[in-house]
Amino acid sequence: SVHSAITRSSGGQVSRRAYSVDSGSGRKVAVLGAAGGIGQPLALLMKLNPLVSHLSLYDIAGTPGVAADVGHINTRSEVKGYMGDENLGAALEGCDVVIIPAGVPRKPGMTRDDLFNINAGIVKSLCTAIAKYCPNALVNMISNPVNSTVPIAAEVFKKAGTYDEKRLFGVTTLDVVRAKTFYAGKANVPVAEVNVPVVGGHAGITILPLFSQATPKANLSDEDIIALTKRTQDGGTEVVEAKAGKGSATLSMAYAGALFADACLKGLNGVPDVVECSYVQSNVTELPFFASKVRLGKNGVEEVLGLGPLSGFEKDGLEKLKPELAASIEKGIKFANQS
Ligand code: NAD
Ligand code: LMR
């Protein structure tokens, strides 16, 4: 169907731009790791998304219960649970979007990279199945360490001959969600109006929020910006410590994951001007993968947007994060090619 986007210029003029939207038949979305701490609330939120017609819930254990429970909700999508490797193909067949929160979470004292040994193998086997059963799906990678799991996925897809850099996303939306929340609190502005790009990667100092570009503008001191940056970078650790051994962020992550998947679905359906930050194959810096604003469209990534003007503090942060991010990318590529 043809819709029109109404935009109002700063002079107040209203213009109308036609675009075609294809949402009638609905989309098939899979959650891999659906019985987990993130998987369950994410399954709930995807069940509430009217763009989804088929919701496929996969895990190695526990999915029959989650699917029976979520499936009773009277919204559009048909819910099916799949358990165990022998049912992974059926879970993936025909998927438009595959969201991956499968794998172990951190405990206090661990870095995301400490999860590599377990999660790299999980991601590798799930991506091997994606290449076989739904090679055209958009993949939303949540499993940590994202800085390495996305390069692993890319290598698996390359080997299978299915790699399309437009269809692979590291989910960094939670960094944006946190940056918005923390900025709104500090700047005392309405949180619903706040925008803050977060670039780089998804671990420690590789998370680089660009508060110089935050809107609405606020007069924050250098100390405030430094504190906000640090809190955003350590947001995951803040939750890990507060949960004291019971895992990491699950509820805020489910919210962020649902937001990003919805943006992917809108892009696929032809909604114009869908822009979210994501960790993707990139030419924005010399690093092969980098998070920045990305325009989403009918083929996934429509355009990787540049960084825009950076403050001196942000330029410094960008140079400091590059060695760590480069090493995490290299580690992922090496793992995928040697095992
Ligand atoms: P969890 O342990 O509660 O759940 C993980 C689920 O994955 C479990 O149900 C488990 O059975 C399942 N699983 C394990 N191996 C699997 C496989 N081979 N196939 C399918 N499912 C499998 O953990 P969680 O709190 O949901 O976190 C999951 C992952 O998400 C962790 O790696 C965590 O670090 C990461 N995470 C990422 C972000 C982000 O911003 N990208 C935010 C929070 C958490
Ligand atoms: C987060 O940012 O909350 C996740 O990456 C989980 C973690 O280990 O911090």
SSE-based structural type: alpha/beta
Strand proportion:
15-25%
User: What is the tally of helical segments?
Assistant: 10
Percent helix? 40-55%
How many beta-strand segments? 13
Shape: globular
Q: What do the pLDDT scores average to?
A: 95
Subcellular location: Mitochondrion matrix
EC number: 1.1.1.37
Catalytic activity: (S)-malate + NAD(+) = oxaloacetate + NADH + H(+)
GO molecular function: L-malate dehydrogenase (NAD+) activity
Please give a structural write-up.
This is Malate dehydrogenase. It comes from Rhamnella rubrinervis. Homodimer. This protein is of the alpha/beta class. The protein has ten helices and 13 strands. Strands 5-4-3-6-7-8 form a six-stranded parallel beta sheet, with helices on both faces. α1 (39-47) crosses α9 (251-268) and α5 (146-160) crosses α10. The longest helix is centred in the C-terminal third of the chain and has 27 residues, at 312-338. (2S)-2-hydroxybutanedioic acid binds at residues 105-106, 112, 144, 174, 235-236, 239-240, 248-249.
Question: What brief labels describe this structure?
Answer:
alpha/beta; single chain; 339 residues; six-stranded parallel sheet; binds nicotinamide-adenine-dinucleotide; binds (2S)-2-hydroxybutanedioic acid; three-stranded antiparallel sheet
